[in-house]
Amino acid sequence: MPKSEAMPPHRAPSHGSDARANHSPAEIARMEAAMKQCETDMAAQRRRQWEALGARDDVESRLTHALMASTVGGASNQPSTAQLLEAAAVAAPDDADVAWYRAAHCPKDAGCDRDRAIARVLELEPGNLDGWLMALGEAARSQHDDATLQALLERAAEASYYDARDGETFARLYQATRDLPLPGSCKTPLVVRGWRQLFGNAPSGPGAADMAAIWAMAMQAAEIKAYSPIGKLCRPKDAPLSRERIAACRSVLAMLASNASLIDQAVGMSAMVELSAGTPEASAWRERYRNLQWLQAAHASNRQFDVESLVRRMIEGEVPAMQAELEAHGRWPAPAGWLPDNERARSLIQTGRPPPDPRR
Known about the structure:
The chain has 360 residues and is mainly α. 60% of the residues lie in helices and 0% in strands. α6 (129-141) packs antiparallel against α7 and α14 (282-300) runs antiparallel to α17.
């Protein structure tokens, strides 16, 4: 989803495969039109909030104002997120959050000096793995030689902590918009029916916090991490890894696997299962990966919308919050002997290796 496109309620995942079975095409069209109008009017509320934030000069307001810029519409000469973050960096040159966001939203095709932005992150947070992953990703995109990439990977392996600002965009945007007045167009019977159709447990139509959570979640999801460089360096297909490469990869991937982000754990654990094959740690990594697969499968079956649960996952951390929800219902850890349906995941858990490639 492009960063300029929020996720209106009428495009949210449906509650079950037969979500529209009880409505005629004409009624579905009316509900969608009503929900689209609701979202349009809500977007106007967000734009007014964005303009209010732009009149403030504190760091948090500057950051939130910048992050909202690509979603509020306006004139073609309106400052972009990257431009507003550049201005924020000038106003607060030593703020680590500003530096991180400036690097994360710094597209080269917009004339932004991404190398300089990443360098500033490393200056302010030399022990943060995420800055080194940014540097590694940029070096890979610039097609640097293997020795340069290995040196950066080894430097990343020396990181003492990992802070990728997971959920912070969500938290800022949700905080800024959750108390906005709900437009009258969002309270109509058609919107209430449409909302219930999408989210089967909803007792009524959307509240302001519901709208804010869905929109903020879409903006957070647009901040995609680049795992490709780590995958290429730590999972080559054509040659065995050197001892130095394995050591660096294990350090980086173990830190990813311990983060609260679901995707970080999935990337880190699956790779660590392969890298630990044949070692004393192998069975422990396979069991951790099995429990992660169970966590995902158990939650995938629950399609009900719960704004409190969504906020908790985004702010407290996806994996800890999801695990606590399963524990509260006596469903954690994974049942003995349980295996996922996915062939690759099942093979990793059982053998520590992916299944054979049928093309070879």
